[in-house]
From TrEMBL:
Protein name (database record): IS66 family transposase
Organism field: Escherichia coli
Domain Transposase TnpC homeodomain: 60-130
Region Disordered, residue ranges: 95-129
Annotated signal sequence range: none
Basic and acidic residues bias locations: 95-109
Transposase IS66 zinc-finger binding domain boundaries: 138-181
Superkingdom assignment: Bacteria
InterPro entries associated with the record: Transposase-related, Transposase_TnpC_homeodom, Znf_dom_IS66
Pfam families xrefs: LZ_Tnp_IS66 (PF13007), zf-IS66 (PF13005)
Length: 181
């Protein structure tokens, strides 16, 4: 073979080894990114679990404080007063931890109940329900005159005291949309 071809082959081998090295480095970077992503996902999951645990603990402590307050105002015991103060301090600490994990910031001038609304619990299923169904005023599309198709509904429940009995009034607003336009 001629000298020219040998030089060309050596040059191509050098380029091939450089590309192989670059590819190996990219693979290392990719595996590092994947490991980092997995670590961050697990850290996020742990943080979310911690927030949920703190939320449950906060609710438990609130119930315990309320029970102790009822006992305190009923019997005026010094021991109960100390337990209430300890429970309130623990509740405040848990709320601060929960806020720190979830990124919420509280304004100390506003009562906590107004600052952060936690989850609204659904009304108990055993209560009798009265359903008011609100149909849309128009049965056809105002744009093209086509028939409106059922999309779903939005429900809102309201608790009402009726002659010493509770019942749930459920209002359902039907949503429809034109499929032609």
């Amino acid at each position: 073979m001629s000298q020219k071809y040998l030089i060309r082959i050596a040059e191509l081998e050098r380029l091939l080894s450089e590309q192989a090295e670059a590819l190996r480095q990219k693979d290392q970077q990719l595996s590092l990114v994947e490991e980092t992503e997995a670590f961050l996902r697990s850290a996020l999951t742990r943080a979310e679990e911690k927030i949920e645990e703190d939320e449950r603990e906060i609710e438990h402590l609130r119930a315990q404080i309320e029970k102790l307050r009822r006992m305190l105002f009923g019997t005026r015991s010094e021991k109960l007063r100390r337990e209430v103060e300890l429970a309130e301090a623990l509740l405040k600490q848990r709320e601060q931890d929960s806020d720190r994990y979830s990124g919420r910031e509280d304004d100390p001038q506003v009562p906590r109940q107004l600052r952060q609304s936690r989850h609204r619990r659904p009304l108990p299923a055993h209560l009798p329900r009265e359903i008011h169904r609100l149909e849309p005023e128009e049965s056809c599309c105002p744009e093209c005159g086509g028939e409106l198709d059922y999309l779903g509904e939005v429900s809102a429940e309201q608790l009402e005291l009726v002659s010493s009995a509770l019942k749930v009034i459920r209002t359902e607003r039907v949503k429809k949309a034109c499929t032609k336009c």
